[in-house]
Structures are given as C-alpha cells and as structure tokens.
Write a sequence for this structure.
C-alpha cells in the first residue's frame, strides 16, 4: 500500500519541508515563462523573428544561470545563491511590470533570464546536503511535486492575469518570488559542507575528488548528463510535436490536448512521492532505466492510433516513466558527487533540460513535418532507448548499499563499489 505523500513529507527535516513549501509558493506565481511569448507578441507587437530571437536569448540566459548557480552554490554557499536569485529575480520581474517601453523592458527580461534560475542547483544541493542516501530520492520527489502542483495552479491563475493585465502578471510573479526569498532568509540556514569534510575522506576518494571536482571532468556525471539530455529531448516533444498530432492530425480541439498533457502534472502530484518511497528496496538506477524505457514506449507508440483514449494511454506511460526516473537520477548524482562540488554536478544535470528545450523544436519539428506520424514517433523512442542501457551500465558503479532501500549510510564516495552489481 502506498504511503500518503503528506506523511512522507512530514518525515523530512524541517529545512527541507520549508524549502519544498517555498518552491510551491514560487511556482504558483511562476507566470512569466508560460505566457511570455503571448505577452511579447500581443503587448509589444514583436515580429516572429524578433520574438524567436528574444526567447532564444531568454532560454540561453536560463541555461547559463543554472550552470553558474551550481558554481555559486558550491563556492559561495547555497543560501547566497538562493537569495541572489530569488530577490534579484523577483525585483527584475516587478521592474518589468512597471517598464514604460519596449526599450526598457527587453534588457530587464534578458537580465532576468540570467538570474531567475540561479537558485535551482542550490535548492537541489540542500536536499543532497541534509538527507541521507536512502531519503534523497523522496526529497527530490517532494521538490518536483511542489513544482508540478505550483505550475498547474500558476497556469490557471496566470491565464486570467495575462488577459486582465500583463503588468499585474509580472508583478505577481515577482512578489511570489520575493516571498520565497523571505522564506529562505528566515527559515533556511546554510548547508554547504565545511571544507574540512573533504580532508576526512579516505585517500582514494580524496585523490579522486582533487582530480575531478569539476563535473566536466567526471565521466560518470557526463554519462548521466547524456542520459538526462536524451530523456529531456524526447520528453519535451509533448509541447512541440504532440499538440500538432492531437489537434491537427487527430482533429481534436485544443482543450483536449490541454487536459491530456495536464494529466502529467496531476499524476506526479498524486503518486511520485509515494511511488518513490515504495520502490526504495529496488536499486535506483535500475528503476530509472525502467522509467526511461516507459518514456521511450509511451512516445514511440503515440502515432499508431489517432484516438483520445490511445493518447491518454501514452501520457500515462511516459508520465510513469518520469515518476520512476527523475528522482532517482538526481539522488544518484547527489550521492556520487564530492560534497564540495555537489551543486556543480547537479547544475549540469539540470542544465540538460534547458538545452533540450532549445534543441527539440529545432531538430524534431522539421523531422515531424518530413516523416509523418508513423515514422516520427518511433524515432523519438530511439532517442530515449539508449539511455536505458547507459543507466544499467552506471548501475554497476552504484554500490549495493546505495540501492533505494539503503538506510542511514554515510554519503558515498566515488571509487566505492566500482564494478559491483
């Protein structure tokens, strides 16, 4: 029987619960991202080329922001990264709401893109710092659940605000972001491990850390980043090609697409925390590999039947894959990374989602137009399937005591358990 998500959240340390609650508040007010293109087109009358260029700059800023956020979290502290991002991003969002002209608005938006996501690696690092290996996946599941629930509510509220007053929408986003910053300021202490922690490691782990603090020189992190990129590249098809399949090829109205894809967030909110806890006795990267397989199958069979019930089945499949895969990959890399570079390792994995968001429409939409429904969707499956094998390979580096069911063990060090199945 699945445990209640609220019961599982109550078992987490108070700081983690506060962080998750703050993330929920922040995402409920996360209006800018989903409605940015509408505002830029409708209120500022940008041409399609100008709109695309500005959105690309905004997306590039987000990618850089995540990577820089990992560095700041490791070198200057999790708390500082959170406060700079939340107070800075909130102030910029409010300033955009009062911008008198396009000339004032656009520089603020570009700067906002470089600040708004600095907090993400820091928030994930706090979960890695405070939770033992056995609880980390549940902690990441809790954070993801808050983000998905907040996004669902924010989409509804943001739609009303966008039609009523785009300025109020930006100010509302800024105020909720600042509110998250206040929650961090008053209730979230610094959790960055002291520098002395590295000196207490066994010699092998300390030597590996000295040569591999950078995730860019860590083969395991790079392999997981490749898996994450493939996962996100396939997964992002739900907002590029899937709406065309449902509304154009199958001929359903847009609300049908909205309800089907909206089910993804609902299922995550209902089941991710409980399912992650229930699967603790299984090895986490094998669970993640199964999730990757479900994503591949769910997208791969999408174009076979043009009926809403079939689309519903595929959404359930790839959502189940996301639920199984996402928390386990984050928990693994949080354990694998040296404590002093945990933020940078997590930021690299998180940045692959931003990269996939930018790459997917450029690569997949032309392929979709050329190949058609029957050939395109199996191609999406082929993008995801190799990730299953790579996760199973990485599982051999995950010591048996780091299976999801491990309890109260110290954080693992790289080099332990190599070659063990």
């Amino acid at each position: 029987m699945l445990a209640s998500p609220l019961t599982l959240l109550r078992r987490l340390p108070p700081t983690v619960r506060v962080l998750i609650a703050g993330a929920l508040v922040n995402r409920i007010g996360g209006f800018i991202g989903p409605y940015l293109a509408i505002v830029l087109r409708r209120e500022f009358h940008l041409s399609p080329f100008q709109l695309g260029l500005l959105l690309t700059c905004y997306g590039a800023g987000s990618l850089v922001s995540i990577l820089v956020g990992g560095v700041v979290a490791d070198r200057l502290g999790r708390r500082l990264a959170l406060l700079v991002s939340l107070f800075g991003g909130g102030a910029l969002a409010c300033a955009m709401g009062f911008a008198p002209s396009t000339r004032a608005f656009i520089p603020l938006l570009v700067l906002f893109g470089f600040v708004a996501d600095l907090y993400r690696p820091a928030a994930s690092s706090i979960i890695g710092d405070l939770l033992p290996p056995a609880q980390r996946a549940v902690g990441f599941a809790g954070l993801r659940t808050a983000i998905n629930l907040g996004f669902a509510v924010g989409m509804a509220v943001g739609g009303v605000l966008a039609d009523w007053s785009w300025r109020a929408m930006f100010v509302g986003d800024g105020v909720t972001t600042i509110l998250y910053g206040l929650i961090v300021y008053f209730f979230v202490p610094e959790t960055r491990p002291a520098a002395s922690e590295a000196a207490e490691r066994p010699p092998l782990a300390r030597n590996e850390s000295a040569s591999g603090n950078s995730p860019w020189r860590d083969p395991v992190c790079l392999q997981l980043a490749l898996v994450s990129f493939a996962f996100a590249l396939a997964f992002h098809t739900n907002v590029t090609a899937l709406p065309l399949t449902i509304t154009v090829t199958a001929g359903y109205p847009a609300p049908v697409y909205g309800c089907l894809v909206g089910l993804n967030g609902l299922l995550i909110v209902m089941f991710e925390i409980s399912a992650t806890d229930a699967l603790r006795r299984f090895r986490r990267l094998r669970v993640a590999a199964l999730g990757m397989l479900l994503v591949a199958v769910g997208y791969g069979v999408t174009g076979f039947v043009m009926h809403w019930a079939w689309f519903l089945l595929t959404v359930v499949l790839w959502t189940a894959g996301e639920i199984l895969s996402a928390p386990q990959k984050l928990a693994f890399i949080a354990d694998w990374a040296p404590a002093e570079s945990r933020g940078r390792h997590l930021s690299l994995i998180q940045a692959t989602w931003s990269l996939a968001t930018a790459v997917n429409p450029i690569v997949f939409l032309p392929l979709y137009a050329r190949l058609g429904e029957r050939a395109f969707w199996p191609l999406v499956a082929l993008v995801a399937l190799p990730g299953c094998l790579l996760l199973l390979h990485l599982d051999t580096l995950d010591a048996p005591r780091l299976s999801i069911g491990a309890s109260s063990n110290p954080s693992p060090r790289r080099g332990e358990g190599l070659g063990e199945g």
Remarks:
- The first helix runs from residue 5 to 10.
